[in-house]
Amino acid sequence: MIIDTLQNAAKYYSVHPLFAKAFEYIAGIDLAAIEPGTYEIQDGLKAIVSDKPGRAREESLQKFECHRQNIDIQVCINGNEEIGWKPLERCVADKGGYDEAKDVQFFGDHPDTYFTLTQDQFVILFPEDVHAPMIGEGSIKKMVIKVRV
């Protein structure tokens, strides 16, 4: 997991071949004006924008998730988003196995830690990062860039 601000994004271009393109896409659009929806950037790279009310921790934990085929770059556009996190190797309460079609696996475990993203901050969540997003009060506008592993 990596947490940083968008102004430092170039530091992470070398981590994955598609990261430079992902962060260039983010820098090249008006985040405040982008509408919710799914945006195809290129093969192996898409953006999902949402603007929804935050959830309570317990509600978010219903979808304590990780992915095998994608890395998430989650960008907070507006609001304060708390995210729960735990390393995959410490999760033991599988909730139904891995869904390959949706690239998601849910767990009944509880996070080891919580952190908060504010405007123009991002987190990079790798397949070994189990996470519970969208915790908070009020509206949270965010972009999730799905980067194929």
From TrEMBL:
Gene3D superfamilies: YhcH/YjgK/YiaL (2.60.120.370). It comes from the Bacteria. Coiled coil: none annotated. InterPro entries: NanQ/TabA/YiaL (IPR004375), NanQ/TabA/YiaL_sf (IPR037012). SUPFAM superfamilies: Clavaminate synthase-like. Pfam families: DUF386 (PF04074). This is YhcH/YjgK/YiaL family protein. It comes from Niabella ginsengisoli. The lineage of its organism: Bacteria, Pseudomonadati, Bacteroidota, Chitinophagia, Chitinophagales.
